[in-house]
Amino acid sequence: MTSIDSITLEVSDTAAAGEFYDAAFGSDAPVRLRASDAPTTGFRGFTLSLTVSQPANADGLINAALAAGASPLKPAAKSFWGYGGVVQAPDGTIWKVATSAKKDTAPASRRFDQIVLLLGVTDVVASKRFYVDHGLAVGKSFARTYVEFDTPSSPVKLALYKRRGLAKDAGVSPDGTGSHRLVIGGDSAPFTDPDGFAWNKA
């Protein structure tokens, strides 16, 4: 396994979700939709992040998402690492839009540079070992709290974060049960990781 080729979000209403994502983020994100009524409550254990080049671009995407029906979880603001905010799509998916830049250097655009899938895991070390055994190379690793994989050919970057830390970063409670409502499309045979995240052949 060397890459994530797509992300499929399981939603109750594919037409409504499609309209939201087109209005909020455009058609560039490698996100697919599939109908599902699998039970789920609370935090689903993952977030999706759009990284952008400057604060004005973050504001543009966040404002578009809110106008399309997203709920605010963390208002856009400056921090020691940059600038960004968090919203929750009507289908329940949590999206973070962020930049490491603190000043605008170009006209505002709703273009994003990268999409990052962060999985909230119970044991970062065990999950890291699992994914390394499945062919992913580690790009960055910080003790037992965060791992980022090196997938240069992938349209989606994968990272692991301690579940409680990821929920705190998103502005929600870490409690949650039921389906993740997420299927990750890769270039390997189907498998399920230690935290129940499902991978299928893209």
From TrEMBL:
Gene3D superfamilies: 2,3-Dihydroxybiphenyl 1,2-Dioxygenase, domain 1. SUPFAM superfamilies: Glyoxalase/Bleomycin resistance protein/Dihydroxybiphenyl dioxygenase. InterPro entries: Glyas_Bleomycin-R_OHBP_Dase. This is Glyoxalase.
